[in-house]
Input
Amino acid sequence: MMEKLLCTWFGAGLLKPAPGTWGSAVAIALGIGIYRLGHFPALAIATVLVTLAGFWAIPRYTAGMVDPDASHIVIDEVAGQWLALCFPAFAFWMRGMPASDFPYPAWVAAFVFFRLFDIWKPWLIGIADREGGVSGVMKDDLWAGLFAGVAVIATGIAFHAIIAVTR
Output
């Protein structure tokens, strides 16, 4: 029972259509809440914990299933989405911004880039996805989160560089 709750992220994966997008949206909302409660360190710890929980719960929940990457399993999206959020959260934390402030372009970009990479599955993301099995279920979303986090930071740097040049 606990495995199903975790794998469906307490029912978010049962929402239709596009359960992965729903899982990511719920992850964004919770991730921002965790960030506001404990800043980057809390989000980083939560990301590690949900990743470990995914590697624990998925094999138990999917034992005997034909497809361990069923669409209603979204704990992998939560782990990847929180990993993507960790990048701007770390940047804001390093700049000394208060935990109450998580500018909306950063979390929107993390959501959009994560969904893009999770659906598109370029390079290492696709390799992990094709690996299949329980490990592939988690790894492709963690790679997507890593790519999305880098994209968020690169986009932020480019945006601020353009602003600086135009002033």
